[in-house]
Amino acid sequence: MNATPQPGGRAASAPLMGHESEPTLFEMSVANRSAYQLRTTGVPALALDDMVPAEHLNPEIVAVAEVSERDLVAHFTRLSHRQFSVDLGMYPLGSCTMKYNPKFCDAIAADPGLNAVHPGAPASLSQGWLEILVTLEEKLCVITGMSAATLQPAAGAAGELTGLLLMRAYHEANGDHRRRVLIPDSAHGTNPASVTLGGYEVTTVPSNERGLVDLGALKSALGPDVAGIMLTNPNTVGLFEEEITEIAKAVHDVGGLLYYDGANLNAILGAVRPGDMGFDIVHMNLHKTFATPHGGGGPGAGPVAVAAHLVDFLPGPKATRVGDGYFNWVAPARSIGRVHGWHGNALVLARALAYIDVHGGDGLTRVAQHAVLNANWLRQRLRAILPAAYDRVCMHECTLTAAPLKSKYGVRGLDVAKALLEEGFHSPTVYFPLIVDEALMFEPTETESVQTLESLAQALERIAQRAKDDPASLRRAPQSTPVSRVDEARAARRLIATADASR
Amino acid sequence: MNATPQPGGRAASAPLMGHESEPTLFEMSVANRSAYQLRTTGVPALALDDMVPAEHLNPEIVAVAEVSERDLVAHFTRLSHRQFSVDLGMYPLGSCTMKYNPKFCDAIAADPGLNAVHPGAPASLSQGWLEILVTLEEKLCVITGMSAATLQPAAGAAGELTGLLLMRAYHEANGDHRRRVLIPDSAHGTNPASVTLGGYEVTTVPSNERGLVDLGALKSALGPDVAGIMLTNPNTVGLFEEEITEIAKAVHDVGGLLYYDGANLNAILGAVRPGDMGFDIVHMNLHKTFATPHGGGGPGAGPVAVAAHLVDFLPGPKATRVGDGYFNWVAPARSIGRVHGWHGNALVLARALAYIDVHGGDGLTRVAQHAVLNANWLRQRLRAILPAAYDRVCMHECTLTAAPLKSKYGVRGLDVAKALLEEGFHSPTVYFPLIVDEALMFEPTETESVQTLESLAQALERIAQRAKDDPASLRRAPQSTPVSRVDEARAARRLIATADASR
Amino acid sequence: MADYLPHTDEDVRSMLEFLGMESLDDLFAHIPQAVRLASGLDVADGLSEPDVAAIFAGYTGANKARATTMTCFAGGGAYDHEVPAVVKMLSNRSEFVTAYTPYQPEVAQGVLQAIFEYQTLVARLSGLPIPNASLYDAATALVEALNMAHGATGRQKMVISSGVHPHWREVARTFARGTGHEIVEVPLRDGVTDWASVDATNAAAVVAAYPNYLGVLEDLSVAKDLAIAHDALFVIGADPVAAGVLRTAGQWGADVFVGEGQAFGTPLSFGGPYLGLFACTQAQVRRLPGRIVGETVDSSDRRAFVTTLRAREQDIRREKATSNVCTNQTLMAVTAAIQLGWLGTYGLREVATRCAQGAHYLYQELLALGGVEALCTQPFFREFALRLTKPADQVIAAMAESNVLAGLAVSALSGGADPSVEGDVEHVLLVTVTERRTKDEIDHYVNVLREALTR
Amino acid sequence: MADYLPHTDEDVRSMLEFLGMESLDDLFAHIPQAVRLASGLDVADGLSEPDVAAIFAGYTGANKARATTMTCFAGGGAYDHEVPAVVKMLSNRSEFVTAYTPYQPEVAQGVLQAIFEYQTLVARLSGLPIPNASLYDAATALVEALNMAHGATGRQKMVISSGVHPHWREVARTFARGTGHEIVEVPLRDGVTDWASVDATNAAAVVAAYPNYLGVLEDLSVAKDLAIAHDALFVIGADPVAAGVLRTAGQWGADVFVGEGQAFGTPLSFGGPYLGLFACTQAQVRRLPGRIVGETVDSSDRRAFVTTLRAREQDIRREKATSNVCTNQTLMAVTAAIQLGWLGTYGLREVATRCAQGAHYLYQELLALGGVEALCTQPFFREFALRLTKPADQVIAAMAESNVLAGLAVSALSGGADPSVEGDVEHVLLVTVTERRTKDEIDHYVNVLREALTR
Ligand SMILES: Cc1ncc(COP(=O)(O)O)c(C=O)c1O
Ligand SMILES: Cc1ncc(COP(=O)(O)O)c(C=O)c1O
Prior knowledge:
By secondary structure, chain A is α/β, with parallel strands linked by helices. Chain A is built from 17 helices and twelve strands.
């Protein structure tokens, strides 16, 4: 017998109580404990082997975990206390647009009238959903200045790849076989990765000393074998590509298409539209610009909008208005086919539409204005301790550099980022974009107040002071968090990806 | 202008990040900031002074607070991280029955079919609610062995006072004017307070060396002027009043009534019923026995069930089955009248019914058995370091004493309770009941596993060790919590009850 | 076996073994056989959650009056206000929901600070400096106010306007059976309290309602003067939403404010759990019922909050306590702080104004109808009473068929004749409008009432 | 002005002043006028939340097929499983919902550990040691598996059973336009893949479904042998719920497992967000797509979790990355870990068993009807296909009038003729039963189908 059972169930992993680690669900598991409760169905209980031939039955029982509902709740509630989130505080992660996610949009997505609908239900029985998709597509097209869009891509990268396949389909339809896609050296990693999967080669275009695409270099890289270019505008340093019309002309002149990576769309809502800049293909990150929550890494939604000449190639079937308030699924004439198992991340799409409806055109324009205002105020406010990589008006985010701190005190951007956690702020994006030395990229977003920006600035001033007074302490930061710096090398050296992996 | 605004918005008050204090809603307030959004109604906008005579209008505008929705969310989410709860871990607070609260019951209470119903709606339009109330009343009567019940009292103390008014109404109806109510010295403070409000005098009955009512003392305290006695059984030390039948007979013999304080009902579900013990009036704490969450101090529900001879006096109107599945409001013949503005804490009542339905008679019986098993296992397990005040089989809770630690090392029960917080457990109830020196009252409840009990025991062993090795450190505990020991004297000396109080 | 118990058979076996016992029954062996329940509980066996959900679906289906499907014009202390998703989400945080009374401040700063903020808001809306941490509901808060008045004056007579909600008065009468208070109810004349009609000598309290339960805005200086004349405590039961625009209890000279806080983020909930608001003057602080949270510091001088002035409370003062309240309505208080934070200074003002605008628009439209007359000719805020040509309960039933909850039959509230209503009460309908009611809904109401009266 | 912006006019003014600017427009002055949007956005003005809620009420009202009111017998990769309140509450904790990808492990242990637990469960259910942290959905997970096979073999030919869901195959064809993969679809004969009918030489991958999308349990050793014969990677797309009782992908010898994780706590959601399950053998770990969380320690030797093997990922490897995935479906992965924790070892087994029992009961009842025949004569798990005397879409429409969602028209899934179905596809109905379907619901289905066919 077992008079001293394996201890468990302490809340010392909740930072409120202590700083110990939380056992895994599997360490908490006790044979024959359970939490599930199922409906009484009255269905005749046929024996498994009367239904399924023996060779298909698993001789062993797959172990999941055996915990009580009470322990399940305690475990995941404690884990949640070990997790920072937008709801807890500022999350100025550059390029990620971690704005406040309205709870109203969550409530919309939680309505059984939306989330209890089977994706394979006939259009006649899911008209509400089709109308949502059509309405969202229409509004996204107005916002971006494009003709039509697909809502299927589940995230930005999926949107990129979809866009490249559209580019390819378009050229091939013109019997025109091209090899290369241009990408600025400041581009996000998903861009080159998507190009490869799109069957193209990447040609990297250098940035100039102003942090923008070097037009000369771009032109010399252009040629009849160039399928197109992928640009983020404002770009990943947070600067607007001022020569965009020249770039567009140059690329179009060689028969290439312009792809707009919409990750930074938040900066230009109502101010300038990709379509008006000459882009042919645009993806949007609804989980950024339209405030759908990131879920700790997803889900997102990456709709792709295109100009008139690409509409026929869009993935399908598409929810389509077929006259007098009726909607149906229609496949575009020369569709490249599905890029998602069903219709895309529908509940994320519904959230985004609700967000757009609440803001309206006027509100969305203010969103961009205030996002840009915040980024510039912060850039200006921090100038003395963290200079901007390119010191002029930025858009919705500002890329600063810790290079001075590094040369003077040996304190790296990463150290500043970690110390910021102790100050009650999430870190900015570090070491991206790659073209900036010791980059610290701050994207405050429009939902943070000037008071919050000020206290972020004061926190960074304290950290700069520590860099002078006690640089070593910064290299040890953070200490107040549930765990201190983790040994990433060890994790990679000896992969332990499951509780069952040999240790 | 204001280039360096008042800083704000750090998450350093979230224990995950740091241990600073959280500003108040009022400190976060900024003129003209707002979060509210209201429906567009199209109602003609009459001017206030066209509707309300000038002498009624407030010349000033009452300041509430002016924060953005984003800051509102951050503020209360951070506060939630500064709060321990059952969902985070074990909460062995004696007499409080802090068991796990099923989320299913919360979902029941969140249904608009229940929570969007106006309490003044006619019975014909709220039949579902009336059926819930009638069904719950019936089940509570079966569980306690009584004839009928009122569901109006909003908590235990309200139930007590209601019960005393029933006692009074009963005696007065018999033209019998009595003065005193007996209460054991171990009773909870609400009992004597309720007696006073019931218009009776308290006569305290001492406990004997076994922690039970001293039968001899009780008998000598009895007399024709005794209206009744209030008992908790198991009593507040967690022991069953074994002489209950003798007590009942003695009280009934002088024409008194027996009141059962049901705070400890969790111990006896399915094992013994107050009605069968001879009690005439019983209150229940649904927020204890029937797992409705405590909400940081409320709401609760304290239904009062009575024996046949008291049914006519119950508060009213009562939801009543008036034949063939129809329900209506009926006032008992000699009702003492309403004790609540409407029908009691209805959503709490609905939760409790759902809880009873899920468990059923068999499950409720197991609840008590496992609650008692846990308490006794813990008592036995801790015997070496924290002896039981009365060392024999207890019911659902065990009252231990830190007296040895105090005499040996000068470590008080309070110090042990505080140190337990650092170990990841909520403290037990300290210094109650008053009859036990350095009382530490542990109520594990049935929803905690033996693994959790074992780790609680090990934590207490570590604390006992610290008491030996470093008693001073215990007097400083807790250190890992959002705040360390607070200055209670200062709070009372100079009351600051609002953000506007002069400091 | 559907329940929430972690114990496996093996756990039970080994735990009993550790205790040297054979069976779970041994744990109860010391209970006299005579009183043991031999047969076991006669309650149906347990069902799984989805099975129970199916049973409750039957109940909810039978609740036709839900405000989500039947437009609500009923008020009388329970109001259909907007509660946004953000407030629901925050007030449902499990740390707030599943905590106990904050006995260990080191791990309860979340609830303590939220209550402190709630207290600040109650003080501001009442215009009185000393709030408490909540009471059960407005009716029981009134009872605590009467007990406070008794404590302050040593007298028993409670002079209460019948403009105070009939249920609150009934609750006051019920508890007076224990305290021995003499409850004197003052009639209304044309909707206004006829203070002159009663003898207030030896009064412990003078209690007025603002607005009164029929919606009328009375000039409270009369009542205040009466209280002063007999140096009784002046107690005002006020609609806290009205405080967004109307004078506060403090401005009217109240010693004690009580009110119903349901309007701040708590759904209609069939009447509970609601929120009893309470605040008083500095002079009465030692008689304050229930808990109060105060600001202080911790051992390292950080700001901290803690329940204070505990010496008043039942667990310490026992039979001499100012009140027997222990568990209160903290979660509703926290919810109110969140909802008020969401509304903000101007949102509350806007809500109050829109309630009044909707009510006055409907009032005007209705008086244009035949068969409808105003019960009185007084100014009102967001509620008003009508005298109809048909019994109010019949009209309510008829209008419900068109999915309109027309209001409350005053006879149902008062349980028959009441000093608040002159003449026949059966035909009196109490109508309420909140900020959620649209012009279309109000116009629909008018048409449906016309039908109901002419049918 | 209903939005979520904190900036007051004064804030904007002073911030601009700090920047030495006059107006917000100055911030955009460096954008060439030529491309500026002079007119402003042509999107309707903002509405308040309750106004937008009213608009959405219109949408939801038009969704007749909601499983809460229309009994769901549709499956095909999207299942109506029980999701208890406790799982919803936990997965909606805002710390999980509003966090970004865990880039700072010191403050992201909550999400990281939850993913680690999810990975462990995926490994156990797939019988393969190397899971990832989730992909978009099953269809795109299959594409990643094909890319992995290409990376492992350098070959382009993908031999895919047409028992794989038609949408998954279509997605594979779409992405093959970029990768240049040659997709070879293998027909079914009497519901079973006719591997012999295709030439697998130079195959990079052999892909089978288990059960196949028509519900059939195929003997996968044939496919495994084929993969071995051409040393191609063996990819199995399996129903993870079936793993509660059936052999795992690993036991069938798979190199890669892909599956749809929606069944674990995610509602039907009109098809998304869902959860792409992925696991592979140790041999393929360096080609793993997407993120993976690993266990390690922090500087004070406490256990900690962190995203690892980052060198494979797009942000570092760029054009040479194993995949372009960045944002994945973490919240659904966390939800799956919670739901599986709730189900536990025996709950999952019970769910799987009840699905099979319900499906076999319905199947037997239906075959007794006239006008209904089984599409094939193979063993099945929880889904089966019928050939009806009427077109499936007409039958579905007819049965919907009795609030039964009869299933899926295979022609709608496949978009017409498909190698998975011999002969006419229009009359083929795919029927699914989950553990939530009661005997009464199933019996009702039988009656309603009888009517629909005889009408
Ligand atoms: C500039 C840029 N492009 C593309 C992406 C990829 O979007 P997703 O993560 O939604 O795939 C991101 C996301 O971080 C990004 O910042
Ligand atoms: C023994 C006992 N009696 C009465 C009460 C009072 O119940 P309530 O707090 O619900 O008013 C309690 C609550 O702590 C108690 O423990």
